[in-house]
Amino acid sequence: MVTVRGVLVRSRAALAAVLLVVALSPVAEAAAGGQTAPEAAREAASEAAPEAGAPPGIAATEADWTPPLSTRGRWIVDADGNRFKLRSGNWHGASGTWNGSGSPDTDADHHAGENSGRMPLGLDRAPMAEIIASFQEIGINSVRLPFSNEMIHDSRPVTDESVAANPSLRGQKPLQVYDAVVRELTAAGLAVILNNHTGTTRWCCAVDGNERWNTSRSTAAWENDWLFMARRYRDNQRVVGADLYNEVRRNVLDDPNWGLGDDHDWFAASQRLGDRILTEADPDLLIIVEGINWTGVPVDGLAHERPTLEPVRRLSHTLVDSGKLVYSAHFYDYTGPNHSGATGTGETSDARYRDFSPAELIDVLNRQAFFVTAEQDRHFTAPLWISEFGIGGREETGVKQRAWFENFVSQLIRTDADFAYWPLVGWHENRRGNGWALLHWDASGHRMGLYDGDDWRAAAWTRLIGAPGRTGRIAPVTKWSMLSPDHGDFVASRRMRALPDWDSGARKAACPDGQRLVGLSHTGNRGLCSDVNTGPLRDPAGGHEVVTDERHVGPGGDWASGYTKLQCPDGYFLTGYSVRGAAVSAALCTAAPAGRLGAGGRTVWFDRGDNRGAAPRAGRQAGGNLTTGPRGGDFADGRYKGQCADDEYAAGIAYTGRVGSARTPDALYCRKLS
Fold it and tell me: Which of these, 15, 179, 23, 33, lies nearest to 94 by C-alpha position?
């Protein structure tokens, strides 16, 4: 038996659990500044005036952007097709600042001594208009606004003291204060991203009962809360995104996963909720999915890692509305790809991000997250929003820490990535306090700003905000989408969702409206969709046909002798399929306008190896990555795949029922587009 921080541990399993709690707890503490801020060089706190020393133009408003937002490849664009770069910050507090022990009414029992009063931090110290104007002065055009599920249902009014600088909010419930904050942010021209940060109203993120979306409540309750929030702000078009859950991670006993189909499957949960928000609440919202933040027990010799977005390469989301998915990730210097961020008890020998050389850091960041924007024309290609990064301010003197921040800012600039600093708002007294925020207010309402002259981060921030990047109109891009009916239906077509079940009892997969099926895997049930070379191909006046036999294989048209062929009728193309177990059940064929589809075809066999058409020549994509191979990427990792060429459409699936076969797809019938 051993004792860890006063806890008597009687077994190796119990020791691992305790170490997990201890190890993960400092992660959140450091992330918003567990350190105290420095003795500042300047004596007087800055007043609520424009930031002294801010570069010209940094406060320029972007109120002329046109909502709603959507995506084109790796870029976020506005309704006019112009690039809208999320230069964001986190205004935290509504998800809670209480540490989970002691009294929620005692400031000292809140993170860094900052008691948000169950609403965005700082409303006791400065008028909301002043806080928002300060965001704009430092170049912010969008705000990630965390909330907790508990906040939605909290019927207790906020205290008068907690809104002392905003007396119009007296007597309001936390959700009503959140409403007011959203209203004022968007009225100022800022975009707002709703962020479900925690289940209960308390500080994040450790082993705290908020590890997964369904730790403190059921998945159904979580989904219903999100539908409520999305509908609540639907008429405010500057509410642009739904950030589904923050830092999904292990609890004491179990890991989250990406694609196993169980109650801990973050891929499946986020896929389902994203579709529900778009189809039942607000079709205009961006759906933002963060990767997995942590799995395993952080003890040397036991498996543990920070997967981030790496699983996306093998299994990516396909929403019912193409052009709405954004991936996100968080990075701090004290954590690492296999380091929880702990210091002392629970610390492992793994490298932290700050331990890497600049070249090593780039490689790690690209592997964990930035590949989703660097590699174009892949099923996983999407905008990447670094929705949290940050570092201690004036008091941070660590050489490695400062170097990491400079290097990370350089990575954001080099990749032209969207970002959100954590946090925007903090407290100070006599220029001491939580130094991580970019803006601080004291109890008298005096502001301490980034550009007061004594914050070493100012130069890096100016570099980041003022960096050149892609602007103007973004041309439409080819869409590539994965189908993964691994554990149930994967119908990404709004049209087919609205129609009766087209193969009852089977698992069904259908491409998003406007795309066609171009690839299948021999095993694993995966598919690949695209609109390459055609754009939308379906005849608006036409219908669809579910094919379960060879009735459309004409005389002399046996393109897979000895195999069962599910072939679309002439004038139709494949948009989906269904399976029972591993076996093919039916082909979904959709009508095209007259003259769009060619006649003659070829057989693409993939039962004994990949057969994916002509590969494009190697070339450098955005972000500098060299990409080769067929477009769409590896949509069925480790399995044989067949794919029609870019100038073809799929018109049939062949399989065999002979002994030893599982009736899985063996060949595609690919025909030329007109």
Answer: 179
